[in-house]
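chain below, 105 aa
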Amino acid sequence: MYLPGIYKKFSQNFPDVLNDYEQLGISCRKAGPLDGKTQDLIKLGIAIGANARGAIMSHTRKALASGATSEEIVHSALLALTTTGFPSMMAAMELVNSVIEEKSS
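prediction:
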């Protein structure tokens, strides 16, 4: 699994904080009825709305790993158009497509 350098450094410097953060994420995922794929697509949409480049790429990878198709992921990005605007959606679409292409090669 790809991990950015800053994430690796953070995990070395603050292992307890990272562990608590990861446990919070697990608790949030278990707190409701949504399946993993749906959760990953929602988190991708949130990342797009936040214009968070690394999170968009990460959640695209996670969505693929949880069984989302390329078409479902691209549709999730497209849905951001009317909420975040055309430029933001296009930037996100470029990131999403780069991850999909990387995984398919």
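The mean pLDDT is 95. The chain has two domains: 1-32, 35-104.
thats it, cya
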